[in-house]
């Protein structure tokens, strides 16, 4: 039985009496979810609420010649039928560019297509009705005449002169490109004893949140206010965007998230159909609800990771990596997604490739092209799985070529643990990482020598098992360098307000959001610890722009490291204020007092002096008894933003042990391990579960998941029977280990942990498969997902 | 997505159902609903009327009589999965059952529904063919029996007429000389297989006779591999694989070439099962 | 033909409560309990029978709420996560999920708990493989399943220990 929480690796330096930092306390709000009493946006109903269904383009690219809506307007229950041209009077279009991605361009995107549909699934008309079923019935009565246009689907030819340009105003199909040339790459390859080249493909896949995107917009014309219940990761960002494109002030817009049924980056973007829903509410002056069903989710939720990367590595016979080179190409759909853009993923691939290794020579180019498929944008571990696949794939291919053990080649090239601060060839600044300690920990954890012996013994019996690794770095705790400097109204700072209530309990209001990762538990742990109460005296409120400090929400593994630090500081500040009250009441010096277990105590002796309930009673109801001129301040707000480093990089290494059935090409995952370093661990159980869940998403990418399109831009497997998500039987148990290198940028020292699993798993699985098949002289597999067919082809069996 | 509107009628007798089918050409029968409901929810089909036959009595039995196993069309997968009669006398069905969907699906799905739907990638149609079973159909002209070999006509097409209702499945009961084999390759447990093979044979001394190999997931219907059957009866596994004359189409999960290769792998595995078995 | 209607009268028991309603023939069981009865603990994840978020119990067995019509439930006994919680039947399993953090966003959880309970109601302690197999029709995107298997396994052992 493994129900007891994993033990923290080291005691936290932040230990105080009743500290919760480093402890695997259960999340305080889980009963609501286990008893089915959560409230997801799809559960929200309001008086006079209507439902919208969107009629979507069946074509990848088509001119909309005419839309006949008369029959639909007369259908039972229908409130309104609205075209893109009609909705354009209520909402302005947007363009997904950032100024720090030099040269990035995109076309204006409207909430509902006007004149032209640019991907299969783009909304072309809205029906608002009393029920969703009635809205769908009426959609079938809308008659749209399309003139089908040639679809641009293959990124390889998107920039060719003969390929139609999707948006005439842009001149070509290039969204963004970036080139980088550091050190002397030519000389480095010339000096290498071996050069390995391979072309990697990471399959286009998507998030498949268990709950589809959901929004209920409620325009109250009487108070000129828009309340939006929205399953989003970034409520303040959405508040800004709704206001901007409806020509409202932000104070006229309130966004509330409630419970969110999974996000993973899927729910941090601007979706045309969600924007349209808000606009429809304003137009109709009543609540409008939209919940993306599974079928429309597959063609509208952002896709990600559709990259083809030509990679090259040079090594000496001693295993020293002399250079990396990549040529990346990615197709991102017809629009760069607003406001984070669809250039970030490729930019990250360029930034992160080669990231763990101390190699000064690096050449990279990426091109991001438009195409008539669903849009691509940031999904969990943005760019990391692609960069790690290329880097780690090349490293293990190089190791095989020079006959070196795959862990040994890493030992010879990973940034040394005592060599920080350091900078990668691409220019990433690294504060303190622990690649070597993590590798050593993993080596022990997996009993590497024993596994190799077992692998060898089984090969003699015709059983082909593989061991694969992936070292990685992960971007967490982003500063304004990520989006703010590019002009997007996406804040990197975050805030926490902490309040002592009239009975001495604590309420936290935080700008980060809960998506199930346990942010509310982390916030409660931070405040309970820094203030000095037990966690059951702490309540957390998130996800409401009217009631929380302005914050960025949850993305890029920022909630614990940034939101947690703000909460820690707010709790500390409130402790100071409470002790000032206690000092006044007790005629003691505040610095001689402390708060432990919710009681003001003598700091030295621990003797109990005053209960918080009594303190609150006096402060709120008998302030007349406090000294003249003394004002109790029992609500405190603190903000935090990383300043010393643009990002708090984390690091880690994963291992996979698997068996390939060489007759069928099927892969059986036997075990998976991850050792990672996210700095101070606030809650080891939550960190481990982030890693496990992330690893399985990465395994999905490696083995199962791909959005398959035909050459006309039609998605072929847009349902859950044909698009294969990982399910329980095929997944392995996953062991987690930790190294702790706190960031000095914050007092907590916590970095993020949300994406480490996803970043490394695909490369790790790839390397393990190739390790398994190496004695059979199979072609290296570098084209994800690794289906039985691809494995059989590599073995020469088909 | 929600289904397009339809009317619903729960019938109390076969005759009532048959009559309604005659009166309503756009009617569909609703048995377990585990395939039909999904297509309705995606608006891939929009019948005007659903005739719910779940209330018909006497159609959910599993009985061993006269050397046959008779399974009522409304017997649910879970019944077959837990039936001692099936385990003993129709071991191929028992072997296939855990591969079909998931527990919640097997609690509702019916064996008759699976055979009537005739999904070419489904397990049970292939089992029916491998066992040389037969089905009973009731229509306006009464009852008739259709042999498995005559039953599967095309993609989701069967010998059932528009007003006919499948009421029972009959399989020869296994005895000491019965040999069965079953194997399938699905990416995930419970999914439709890329390729599957259901097989039966009779022990003949140390060899086999009456070998019947029924593939699923390789064509528009479950498909016998006649030449391979003959080779296997001769004990020639390599010959059986070489004689496989399948020509599967590409689909989402695999190309035809992959399916064909996997069919050969399955044949070796199932052949080993047939040859090693001791009932 | 008057009884061959687009709207159907049904009388059933839901979480022990007698319910009499008229429903659209096309309405699925899960939409009925959510929209008409306000039992929003059963979730809609795919509407084509793959994700298992709508798993509930009808006449004592687990079903997909999206693959059954409300109209088919005349006379049935339906139990949803709300009823299974209030009765205390799932209390130990829910506590194990909470302790082990075997849920993150919680959207799959009511269906996952209901499916797991179906296995736990059988004799003996299932292996981890058997647990994985029994929940193979329930999609969780957050946890990677390991914690769920841990939680179910712990309850199986505890229940078995309590009733040797």
TL;DR?
With 279 residues, chain B is α+β, with helices and mostly antiparallel strands. Chain B has 12 helices and 14 strands.
Q: Would you kindly provide a written description of the structure presented here, covering whatever features stand out?
A:
The complex is a heterotrimer of chains A (798), B (279) and C (164). In chain A, 27% of the residues lie in helices and 23% in strands. Chain A has 798 residues and is an alpha+beta fold. Chain A has three domains: 30-38 and 493-640, Aldehyde oxidase/xanthine dehydrogenase, molybdopterin binding domain (Aldehyde Oxidoreductase, domain 4, 2-Layer Sandwich), CATH 3.30.365; 41-149 and 209-300, Aldehyde oxidase/xanthine dehydrogenase, a/b hammerhead (Aldehyde Oxidoreductase, domain 3); 303-480 and 644-794, Aldehyde Oxidoreductase, domain 4. The two termini of chain A are 44 Å apart. Chain B has 279 residues and is α+β, with helices and mostly antiparallel strands. Chain B has three domains: 7-52, Uridine Diphospho-n-acetylenolpyruvylglucosamine Reductase, domain 2; 62-172, Uridine Diphospho-n-acetylenolpyruvylglucosamine Reductase, domain 3, CATH 3.30.465; 178-276, CO dehydrogenase flavoprotein, C-terminal domain (Enolase-like, domain 1). Chain B has twelve helices and 14 strands. Chain B starts with 6 loop residues before the first strand and ends with a helix. In chain C, strand 1 and strand 2 (17-24) form a beta hairpin. Chains A and C meet through helix 1 and helix 17 of A and helix 2, helix 3, helix 4, helix 5 and helix 6 of C.
């Amino acid at each position: 039985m493994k129900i007891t929480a994993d033990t923290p690796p080291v005691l936290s330096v932040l230990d105080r009496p009743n500290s919760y930092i480093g402890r695997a306390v259960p999340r305080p709000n889980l009963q609501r979810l286990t008893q089915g009493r959560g409230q997801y946006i799809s559960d929200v109903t309001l008086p006079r609420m209507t439902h919208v269904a969107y009629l979507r383009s069946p074509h990848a690219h088509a001119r909309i010649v005419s839309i006949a809506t008369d029959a639909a307007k007369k259908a039972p229950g229908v409130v309104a039928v609205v075209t893109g041209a009609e909705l354009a009077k209520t909402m302005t279009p947007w363009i997904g560019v950032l100024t720090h991605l030099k040269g990035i361009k995109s076309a204006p995107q409207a909430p509902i297509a006007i004149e032209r549909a640019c991907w299969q699934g783009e909304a072309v008309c809205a029906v608002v009705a009393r029920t969703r079923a009635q809205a769908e019935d009426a959609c079938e009565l809308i008659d749209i005449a399309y003139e089908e246009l040639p679809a641009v689907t293959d990124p390889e030819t998107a920039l060719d002169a003969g390929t139609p340009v999707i948006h005439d105003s842009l001149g070509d199909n290039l969204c963004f490109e970036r080139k980088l040339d550091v050190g002397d790459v030519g000389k480095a390859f010339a000096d290498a004893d071996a050069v390995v080249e391979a072309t990697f493909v990471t399959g286009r896949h998507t998030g498949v949140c268990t709950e589809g995107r959901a929004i209920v917009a409620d325009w109250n014309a009487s108070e000129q206010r828009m309340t939006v219940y929205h399953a989003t990761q970034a409520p303040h960002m959405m508040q800004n965007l709704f206001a901007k494109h409806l020509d409202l002030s932000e104070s006229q817009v309130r966004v509330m998230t409630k419970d969110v049924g999974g996000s993973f980056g899927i729910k941090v973007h601007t979706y045309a159909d969600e924007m349209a829903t808000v606009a429809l509410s304003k137009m109709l002056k009543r609540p409008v609800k939209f919940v993306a069903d599974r079928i429309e989710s597959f063609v509208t939720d952002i896709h990600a990771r559709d990259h083809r990367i030509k990679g090259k590595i040079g090594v000496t016979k001693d295993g020293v990596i002399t250079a990396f080179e990549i040529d990346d190409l990615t197709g991102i759909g017809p629009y760069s997604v607003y406001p984070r853009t669809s250039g970030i993923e490729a930019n990250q691939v360029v930034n992160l490739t080669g990231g763990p290794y101390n190699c000064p020579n690096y050449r990279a180019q990426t091109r991001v092209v438009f195409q008539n498929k669903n849009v691509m944008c940031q999904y969990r571990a943005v760019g990391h799985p692609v960069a790690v696949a290329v880097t780690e794939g090349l490293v293990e291919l190089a190791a095989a070529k020079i006959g070196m053990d795959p862990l040994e080649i890493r030992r010879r090239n990973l940034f040394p643990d005592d060599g920080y601060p350091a900078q990668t060839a691409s220019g990433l600044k690294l504060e303190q990482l622990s690649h070597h300690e993590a590798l050593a920990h993993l080596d022990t954890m997996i009993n590497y020598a024993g596994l190799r012996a077992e692998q060898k013994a089984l090969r003699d019996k015709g059983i082909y098992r593989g061991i694969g690794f992936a070292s990685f770095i992960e971007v967490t705790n982003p500063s304004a360098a990520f989006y703010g400097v590019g002009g997007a109204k996406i804040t990197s700072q975050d805030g926490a307000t902490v309040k002592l209530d009239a009975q001495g309990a604590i309420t936290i209001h935080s700008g980060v959001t809960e998506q199930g990762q346990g942010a509310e538990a982390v916030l409660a742990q931070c405040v309970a610890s820094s203030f000095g109460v037990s966690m059951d005296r702490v309540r957390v409120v998130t996800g409401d722009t009217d009631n929380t400090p302005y914050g960025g929400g949850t993305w890029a593994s920022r909630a614990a490291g940034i939101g947690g630090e703000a909460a820690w500081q707010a709790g500390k500040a409130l402790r100071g204020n409470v002790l000032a009250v206690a000092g006044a009441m007790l005629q003691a010096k505040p610095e001689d007092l402390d708060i432990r277990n919710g009681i003001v105590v003598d700091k030295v002796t621990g003797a109990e002096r005053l209960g918080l309930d009594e303190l609150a009673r006096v402060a709120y109801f008998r302030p007349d008894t406090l000294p003249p001129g003394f004002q109790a301040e029992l609500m405190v707000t603190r903000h935090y933003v990383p300043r010393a480093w643009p990002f708090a990089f984390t690091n880690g290494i994963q291992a996979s042990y698997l068996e390939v059935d060489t007759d069928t090409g099927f892969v059986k995952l036997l075990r998976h391990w991850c050792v990672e370093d996210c700095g101070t661990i606030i809650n080891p159980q939550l960190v481990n579960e982030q890693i496990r869940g992330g690893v399985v998403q990465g395994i999905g990418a490696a083995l199962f998941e791909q959005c398959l399109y035909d050459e006309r831009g039609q998605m072929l497997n847009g349902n859950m029977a044909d698009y294969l998500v990982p399910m329980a039987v095929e997944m392995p148990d996953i062991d987690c280990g930790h190294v702790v290198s706190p960031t000095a940028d914050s007092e907590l020292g916590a970095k993020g942990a949300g994406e480490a699993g996803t970043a490394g798993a695909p490369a790790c699985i790839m390397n393990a498969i190739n390790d398994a098949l190496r004695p059979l002289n199979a072609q290296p597999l570098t084209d994800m997902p690794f289906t039985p067919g691809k494995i059989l082809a590599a073995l020469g069996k088909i | 997505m929600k289904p397009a509107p339809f009317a619903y009628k729960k019938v109390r007798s076969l005759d009532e159902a048959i009559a309604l089918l005659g009166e309503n050409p756009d009617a569909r029968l609703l048995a377990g609903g585990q395939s039909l409901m999904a297509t309705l929810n995606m608006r891939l089909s929009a019948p005007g009327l659903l005739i719910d036959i779940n209330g018909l009595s006497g159609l959910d039995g599993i009985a061993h009589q006269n050397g046959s196993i008779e399974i009522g069309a409304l017997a649910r997968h879970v019944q077959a999965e837990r039936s001692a009669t099936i385990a003993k006398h129709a071991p191929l069905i028992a072997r296939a059952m855990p591969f079909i969907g998931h527990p919640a699906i097997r609690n509702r799905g019916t064996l008759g529904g699976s055979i009537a739907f005739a999904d070419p990638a489904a397990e049970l149609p292939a089992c029916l063919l491998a066992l040389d079973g037969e089905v009973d159909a009731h229509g306006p002209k009464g009852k008739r029996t259709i042999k498995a070999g005559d039953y599967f006509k095309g993609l989701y097409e069967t010998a059932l007429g528009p007003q006919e209702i499948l009421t029972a499945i009959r399989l020869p009961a296994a005895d000491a000389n019965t040999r069965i084999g079953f194997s399938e390759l699905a990416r995930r447990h419970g999914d439709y297989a890329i390729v599957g093979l259901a097989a039966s044979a009779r022990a003949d001394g140390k060899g086999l006779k009456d070998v019947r190999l029924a593939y699923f997931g390789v064509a528009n219907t479950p498909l016998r591999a006649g030449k391979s059957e003959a080779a296997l009866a001769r004990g020639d596994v390599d010959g059986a694989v070489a004689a496989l004359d399948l020509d599967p189409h590409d689909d989402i999960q695999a190309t035809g070439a992959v399916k064909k290769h996997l069919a050969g792998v399955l044949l070796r595995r199932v052949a080993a099962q047939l040859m090693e078995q001791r009932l | 033909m008057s009884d061959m209607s687009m709207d159907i009268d049904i009388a059933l028991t839901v979480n022990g409560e007698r319910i009499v309603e008229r429903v659209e023939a096309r309405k699925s069981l899960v939409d009925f309990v959510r929209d008409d009865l306000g039992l929003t603990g059963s979730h809609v994840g795919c509407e084509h029978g793959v994700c298992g978020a709508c798993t509930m119990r009808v006449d004592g067995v687990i079903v997909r709420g999206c693959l059954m019509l409300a109209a088919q439930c005349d006379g049935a006994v339906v139990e949803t996560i709300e009823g299974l919680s209030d009765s205390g039947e799932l209390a130990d399993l829910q506590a194990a999920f909470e302790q082990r953090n075997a849920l993150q966003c919680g959207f799959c959880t009511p269906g996952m708990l209901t499916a797991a309970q179906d296995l736990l109601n059988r004799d003996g302690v299932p292996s981890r493989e058997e647990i994985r197999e029994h929940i193979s029709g329930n999609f969780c995107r957050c946890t990677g399943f390991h914690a769920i298997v841990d939680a179910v396994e712990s309850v199986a052992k505890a229940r078995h220990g309590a009733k040797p």
